[in-house]
Amino acid sequence: MIWVKICGIRTLEEAKAVRLAGAAAYGQVFAPSPRMISPEDAARINHSVQDGILKVGVFVDAALETVKQVARECKLDIIQLHGHEPQEYLAELNYPVIKAFSVQYPITPNDLQGWKAWAFLLDAYSPGRRGGTGQVIGSDLLEFLGNFDNIILAGGLRPGNVARAIRLYRPMGLDVSSGVEYPRGGKDPAAINRFMQEVREASEVHPEPRRVIENW
């Protein structure tokens, strides 16, 4: 099945719901956002949900030592960088790294050269915001997606459109946040389960090679 991360987890109940639904990972946001979580709360959750799911920490232009400290304290498995971090920054992290890009123009192989990243996350561009907007990336910006084997697609995914996204782009992974939330915020377990079921069904029709974290 395609690799799936549910992002913006803030409570133990949400983390457990994501694991039970069968997602590969959940994300915790350590940057200004309606879904921001403190390192203390994240550590408490991650120490309670230890096995069976990967923990991803999302950072935006944070100091390198801060990222390393939070990763250790919160038992993170993967670091996601959603800011303007330079290529050298990634080389200093002894973790698999997901480098996120807010897509404003068609992504080509030249855009991703030189980055020591385990995967690249492509999200919709929104001025002043770093993900979680619910906006969909224009299909004209993703015409070269077939050139890559380590793309995580984000931006406006939800039950009802995720199967189409898999069919069109066949990414390595998917990242969803607002698409599985209640209208006033907070993760909706029923929406998470619907999303995962649609991913499973689409993955059976359009199977993809599974890329595992040990390959990093």
Q: Between the first and last Cα atoms, what is the distance in angstroms?
A: 19 Å
CATH superfamily: Aldolase class I
Uncertain runs are: 209-216
How would a textbook summarize the main sheet?
A: 8 strands, parallel, barrel
Description:
The chain is an alpha/beta fold and 216 residues long. The protein has a single domain, classed as TIM Barrel (Alpha-Beta Barrel). It has an eight-stranded parallel barrel with strand order 1-2-3-4-5-6-7-8. Strand 7, helix 5 and strand 8 form a beta-alpha-beta unit. The C terminus is likely disordered.
List the helices and strands and how they pair.
Elements: E1 3-6, H1 12-21, E2 25-29, H2 39-48, E3 54-59, H3 64-73, E4 78-81, H4 87-91, E5 97-103, E6 119-124, E7 151-153, H5 162-169, E8 173-176, H6 189-205
Parallel strand pairs: 1-2, 1-8, 2-3, 3-4, 4-5, 5-6, 6-7, 7-8
Record keyword descriptors for this entry.
disordered C terminus; TIM Barrel; eight-stranded parallel beta barrel; single chain; 18% strand; alpha/beta; 216 residues
Short structural description:
This protein is an alpha/beta fold and 216 residues long.
